[in-house]
Recover the amino acids of this structure.
């Protein structure tokens, strides 16, 4: 069973459960084609990125903020200068790792979307 996203209401629904190309959530009709693949291409919206990309970048920024603020706090304390600077540097590394992972996943997703589209030159 394949899943898709209705272009009208953006609801994720199983395409096989749609009767006569009518979205069960919003009730609007999508364009009906004779080819099932063409019908799926009309109802699936591939412009949205996976939520893991935003989650990883948000997590990276949150960890950076926590370690950076902890580092600033320790730097202002007596005898905690080196530990505070180490925490700030660790926060920068964590941020770069999480933003790097989200960029890699975004690139892989874009490659997947571009290779899953039917080739218009072959018809």
């Amino acid at each position: 069973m394949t899943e898709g996203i209705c272009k009208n209401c953006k609801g994720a629904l199983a395409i096989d459960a749609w009767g006569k190309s009518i979205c069960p959530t919003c009730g609007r009709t999508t364009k009906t084609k004779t080819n099932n693949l063409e019908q799926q291409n009309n109802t699936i919206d591939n412009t949205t990125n996976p939520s893991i990309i935003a989650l990883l970048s948000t997590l990276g920024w949150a960890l950076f903020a926590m370690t950076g603020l902890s580092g600033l706090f320790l730097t202002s304390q007596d005898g905690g200068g080196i530990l505070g600077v180490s925490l700030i540097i660790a926060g920068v590394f964590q941020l770069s790792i999480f933003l790097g992972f989200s960029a890699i996943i975004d690139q892989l997703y874009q490659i997947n979307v571009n290779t899953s589209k039917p080739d218009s030159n072959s018809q």
Observations:
- The chain has a mean pLDDT of 76.
- Residues 51-122 form one domain.
- The first helix runs from residue 36 to 43.
